[in-house]
Design brief:
The complex is a heterodimer of chains A (558) and B (351). With 558 residues, chain A is mainly α. Helix content of chain A is 65%, strand content 0%. Chain A has a single domain, classed as Cytochrome c oxidase-like, subunit I domain (Cytochrome C Oxidase, Chain A, Up-down Bundle). Chain A contains 16 helices and no strands. In chain A, α2 (32-61) runs parallel beside α4 (114-137), α7 (254-288) crosses α13 and α11 packs parallel to α14 (432-458). The radius of gyration of chain B is 27 Å and the shape is elongated. Chain B has 2 domains: 1-86 and 129-240, Cupredoxins -  blue copper proteins (Immunoglobulin-like), CATH 2.60.40; 260-348, Cupredoxins -  blue copper proteins (Immunoglobulin-like), CATH 2.60.40. Chain B has 351 residues and is α/β, with parallel strands linked by helices. Classes of the chains: A mainly alpha (558), B alpha/beta (351).
Amino acid sequence: MTVLDEGIARPRPAERVSAWVTVHDWATTVDHKKLGVMYISSALVFFLIAGLEASLMRIQLAVPNNDFLPPTTFNRLFTMHGTTMVFLVGMPMFFGFANYLTPLMIGARDLAFPRLNSFGFWLFLFGGLLLYFSFLGGAGLYGAGTAPDVGWFAYSPLTGRAFSRGNSTDYWILGILVSGLGSTATALNIATTIITMRCPGMTWGKMPLFVWLMLVNCLLTLIILTPLTAAQVMLLFDRFLGAHFFDTQAGGSAVLWQHFFWFFGHPEVYVLILPAFAIANEIVPVFSRKPLFGYPFMVGATVMIGFISMSVWAHHMFVVGLSAAANTFFTASTMAIAVPTGIKIFNWLGTMYGGKIRFKMPMLWCTAFLFSFVIAGLTGVMLAVVPWDWQLSDSYFVVAHFHFVLIGGLLFNIFAAIYYWFPKVTGRMLDEKLGRLHFWIFTIGFYLTFTTMHFPGLLGMPRRIYTYEAGRGWDTLNLITTLGVAVQAIGLLFFLWNVGRSLLRGDPAGDDPWDAWTLEWSTTSPPPDYNFETVPVVHSRRPLWDLKHPEDPDWKYE
Amino acid sequence: MQGRQVARARVTGAIAAAFAIVAVPAMSAFGADDAVRAVPNMFAPVSTPANTIRELSFLVLGISAGIFVVVSGVLFWCVYRYRQQPGDDREPPQVYGSNPIEWAWTIVPVLIVLILFLATARTINELQASEVPPNALKVTIVGHQWWWEIRYPDLGVVTANELHLPVSSADTKRPTYLTLESQDVIHSFWIPQLAGKTDVVPNRRNLMWVEPTETGTFLGQCAEYCGTQHAKMLLRVMVHEPADFERWAATQRKPATTDTAVAEGRAIFQSTACINCHTLDGTNADGRFGPDLSHLMSRTTIGAGAATNTRDNLRAWVDDPHQFKPGVLMPAMKLDTPELDKLTAFLLSLE
């Protein structure tokens, strides 16, 4: 608490503290900003690991009948890649940004339950480490393997004792279960904070859209993680206590698992993508120099997405033999969700229209996101067309589709967010030149890989095969896909170099480098432990605009 | 049925022409006219369901292409027209939104979605198998880790990995109805040129149908991850003229050969673990874990497509199948060289 005595907080002068003190400080912190940074950095480390796993798979698939990897290793890699990217990269990225930014944006000094926040983070991290420990400790029986190899959605009965010996599947269950408990805790925490701790004047209608989306997302997380956790416990009962929920040899149901899993799994896709929308909602207006077009409609569309996303899960199951009536219903609900998603895209375009767009790094990434997301949305509609889905399901077309969503949608916006808020978090700017190299190389690699990847799917290539026969029309396409991965990896190196270099010698950022409008830019960079010296009072959605333009404040029009 | 297809073909024809600019129809050129259609291209259908799906997909692609051009066009135009001009630091007019515009871009997508939904719902009801027509050929497919058991209950034929079907022509329509069952985990039956895929789920019986209209060999493979060798669970469909199909079925119905020249190999087969997993009619071998070997040499591949069915491959497979298909559930038989030769000679006699 010595910081209080220093008066106005600035980036602290570099006083020498021992490494042990620093480690102890971070390990025991309950500060939402430090936990946010730890969430995001852990997610980045897991991202690099899962990216490496993907690269190994792409080397294996570059040419037909390749024997770079044995099948068992390949199967572990795609399981770990998917599980990691969803649970240990996407989710913690969401919680990291929500953690860091929500209190700052609503003028609060921390989350509602700081110690629960710390608990949630450590559960996530240890859950992730438990999952990765499977590489060392997974072999419960001789020859039974190490890391999980059942795919990230772990379809039964492949996960049953009969088909998955040893303990690899148990690591999958427990790792995700533990980190899921952490996610539940943090979601509860952030939702409570948003509901109860907004600064004076910040009514529901004046909350930044970022915060609105975080609220919807946290509530969604609370609802959907429950069935996943329940299903995982049932699977543990099957594996250890002789229950038969999913044991088809004893009358259990394989399809039941799919209902449980996808009731979690599809809303989960929205849990991953809503933070991306939240980021675009902040960046697109600031760099277009206009308020977000149609704020009430954006809130409405978000709430709609939250609700509808819970009625679309069986579109992952169009090929399991549902009735025609069920197939028709889930087509309708799946297509319906395209409408609010479309409204969001149109409102971003409406924000850019008539603006004076500054193409700094954050806006470049958001623009690339908009373009990719149009494609991702349209291939999503194609997959909702049930008869066509009977062809496309479980093919490389699906893999290409959801990578457009998760890379072109989520990751592009995470990069945007990192370029945008890095100055606030560290007090230093990221380098624009290195940033541009990162942007162009990475996006070119991305389009090379994932645009190409649609086509082997159309030519009948199923996903999750460790090798394929020559002469099926897939050879060249797969080679191009693999080359694109190498290009992306080079782009990523520029990003890492940029972050490392800027941390040490980046230009000082100042409090408000982007001339932005939300409350986090009113405090110092980095913000002091207590965030704001005095609790701010807001009158509009853009409090800093009001301060900068007293002659033309927002609250007159809202 | 016919009239409706013509009408729809007219609508989709125009869209397909527009779509020709994009790469996909170019891919239809792959695999034309060969006896074996090497490319399992869903846009080169040879069967009624696959054909109907392609028509629907062209409608969806056409609408999607239109939306893509408009939305990305607006995006690029905004990027070009509204980028900040050098030296211009003034703020643009602050516009907060417009209710009429919001309603417009809500209602238009709703209408587009409605059209897509109606087209989809109609095709679902047209294609989803409900009851089996009386003249249909009935086949039961049983998924195993990692091969396909194929049974023709009405013909008394059992085979594996290669599905033989009669062609359906305009004057003698004969669809095939497939009952899908699984012995172990979930698999998925997929021949892109014949129909969409249907999962093969244990403890559940799924039904799908195909109606091939051209003869030839069409390729596919398991489409649901089913364990270590999911990648080598390949499928071939041989579509024959009706007479050829009947001839093939008659050969398959014949009892397995009892050639005395290979009696030694036969004795080895019957006295080793082979019989635990394989069936060979006329012997004590009645296992169900592995494929029925009664007419092994009538098949073009072994190991569910892992290798072509030649003498050398067969011998090497029996010696150690893992060199073709690591992780396969058949163990290496560890026979000495003379035994292996005799056994191979016996297997080669199973026409």
